[in-house]
Design brief:
By secondary structure, the protein is α/β, with parallel strands linked by helices. It contains 18 helices and 25 strands. The structure holds 6-O-phosphono-alpha-D-glucopyranose. 6-O-phosphono-alpha-D-glucopyranose binds next to helix 9.
Length: about 600
Amino acid sequence: MCGIVGYVGRHNAVPVLISGLESLEYRGYDSAGVAVLQNDGIGIRKAKGKVDNLRTLLLNNPVSGKVGIGHTRWATHGAPSDRNAHPHFSNGEVIAVVHNGIIENYQELKDELEAKGYKFESETDTETAANLIYDFYKECNDLLEAVRLTLERIEGSYALGVLCSDCPDQIIAARKESPLIIGIGQGENFIASDIPAILEYTRDAYILDDKELALVKADSIQIFDIEGNEIEKSVYSYKWNVEAAQKSGYDHFMLKEIYEQPKVVKDNLAHRFSEDGKHIELDGIKLGKEQLKNINQIYIVACGTAYYAGLVGKYLLERIVRIPVNSEVASEFRYKDPLIDEHTLVIVVSQSGETADTLSALKLAKDRGARVLAIVNAVGSSIAREADDVLYTLAGFEIAVASTKAFSAQVTAMYLITLHIAQELGKISDEDFAEIKTALDKLPSQINDILTKAVPAIRKFVNKYIGSKNVFYIGRGLDYVVGMEGSLKLKEIAYLHSEPYAAGELKHGPIALIEEATLVVGVVTQESLFDKTKSNIKEVKARGAKVLAIAMKGNSSIEEVADDVIYIPRTHWMLTSILANIPQQLFAYYMALGLGEDIDKPRNLAKSVTVE
Ligand code: G6P
């Protein structure tokens, strides 16, 4: 949440900051702003809304300078407004600060500062940091030390970028629990919440760890611990190229990412089997027979779409490995005093690797002695670095706020982990393994098949159902989980009220909401449950619902009860989730398009949720 970028070098910082902020808009777009060191002090420009508004403001009222910081906001303290937009000045306009995170004790600090005569302009916690830094700076006349002393007083999370009008050659950066990297250029250096912001200029960066500070100048970068001791860090080289962070001819990042799924699944399957195809080989995972024998339960913990991918894993692991699996959203897990110990395997799932609740859940699990396996997309992210074992999902940048390809990659990872654990524990026969492997190999081309053939039909259904105000997704087993993800997508980008329900549970309440023309999406790909779900579809039909079914090819009797059907190619029961989800993604996408919504930047949401 919130994106930070900073530049110190020989060129005008403003264009670098603006393009960086545009790449970071997935982190929030309630307001944006820049602060630049000019000859006559720090110039700040900020505007409510997307970076485009800031761009317009800068055309009418420009600033320029060779050192600057920028911010794109997802509001936490104080409504989205010009006034609450970052950067924030200290009193006297000596210090300017951008901040990602939450200062939990800001009221106490603010009271102290007000007692000393400081005035506050905004409702944000960040302004407290700016004034506290200024207060220390007045005493010690050393910006780095003033920031360090401030950090000692702050409780909560932060990624900070700090400018001082007395120090025209530098930015101070600091991090705790919110991501921040220091990009290494030639004669210029950068700070950023994430690499896409600076990829145009460099792929090399230092990844700051918690409670580290950086003094960044055009020709040097020094990194310090919270005690002020200089430390050595190794350089991380990102593999991404600039194109990976562009739309490449698609109207939206979401559509581009939907169409990348055949490749993403293929990449995730490549090199994950032994040469003879008879075993799973997961680099970076040291979960062999010995470790697994010690495990008597599994927890899968995540947020949002990643949680649903984890839930697919729960259904698979329990059914195939026969081990108890609890699946929990991270914000619940971390406060429920979970029953975990050294015999628990905790699997955390995260695209960004920075989600605050998931990261805290991971730390809690480790503190209690559990072994933590992370399924993560962002290489070098906090979750990847903290976990005992990491399985990277190789999905590339996912920029659209609504997650699509990351889900398919995470579910593929769940397939691989399930097969690996099952094989290590002798819970799967060679024949079954071979059958699933054959089905897995077909998945990329089957996804492609849906993407090339289903779009006209889906657009037709969208036109038919676009007036729907309430949409239910029903299914059983894995189909229920897929429905959860489909429903989330529709809420996120089309802003439609939508609920997923276990098809068999519908009659215990929610069926009361079904009336003439209520849209029900019935996911019916699990053949062992086909007749049961079909009966539930009949029940909603009898009460006036319109039903759009997603079924496996060959099960055409679903047409007896559904108004419309989208068929997915035939596959093994355990692998239906990714295929069934593709039409759901397209349905949500074209619904949102038809309703004229901002698909890549849905209201109130952000991609990387680094606050609790
Ligand atoms: C936000 C995003 C979702 C994502 C969730 C978890 O809510 O909008 O798309 O699924 O966070 O994020 P993570 O990076 O941990 O997968």
